[in-house]
Amino acid sequence: GAVVSQHPSRVICKSGTSVKIECRSLDFQATTMFWYRQFPKQSLMLMATSNEGSKATYEQGVEKDKFLINHASLTLSTLTVTSAHPEDSSFYICSATGQGILRPRSTDTQYFGPGTRLTVL
Amino acid sequence: AQSVTQLGSHVSVSEGALVLLRCNYSSSVPPYLFWYVQYPNQGLQLLLKYTTGATLVKGINGFEAEFKKSETSFHLTKPSAHMSDAAEYFCAVSERKTSYDKVIFGPGTSLSVIP
Questions:
Q1: How far, in Å, are A9, A84, B53 from residue A12 at the CA level?
Q2: A95 touches chain B (CB under 8 A)
Q3: Helix locations, A1-121, DSSP H
Q4: With CB atoms 3.0 to 4.6 Å apart as the test, which of A69, A77, A86, A88 could cross-link to A56 if both were Cys?
Q5: Strand residue runs (E) in chain B
Q6: CA distance A15 to chain B (A)
Q7: Which of A4, A46, A115 is the closest to B42 by Cβ?
Q8: Å from A65 to nearest chain B CA?
């Protein structure tokens, strides 16, 4: 299957600092990437959708200035949690959909990264 | 608006027994439906999906699901549970309103397999 990576897998930071999480599609062009947040024992909550080269579309209730999303290329999207606080601690997961160069992918399926565990002290 | 419900937040089965995880959806347009599995502290892995065509869909690891439009259901089954099947399972529906597919996830069902 398609491979999506996330970096870092785990990060611990102090309150007030900013944290950047990277999401990369390794073997296909990710025209669209999604960022989710997951609390323990709960489902995934979509935070935003980003298309390469354009501004992200945020879901209702998600602060744009708090969660900065950049999708600068067809293989990379970043989520920056600005001025992180303990309530931002969560599991952040990205997914991607798009067309492959070497192996065509259908756009009806999202391929998920392994997630990033953020802990804000 | 689309939504997904999963009956039973936790299901326990004995090893070798039938696995049945229930999923019902609501959608104003013909849906794309998915089942994903999540192991602890990991991302989601696609088990199977229904888009069009045959309503009985076979996926990985011996799982299958049947799309029943009249019942708005997409239940996941496996004839014989294995210990490695213990995980969190999410049913999802796609909105298909744009060129990309926004996916709405159900609340999840935690599957335990008893030796």
A1: 10, 11, 47
A2: yes
A3: none
A4: A69
A5: 3-5, 10-14, 19-21, 24-26, 32-38, 44-50, 56-58, 64-68, 73-78, 87-94, 103-105, 109-114
A6: 23
A7: A115
A8: 22
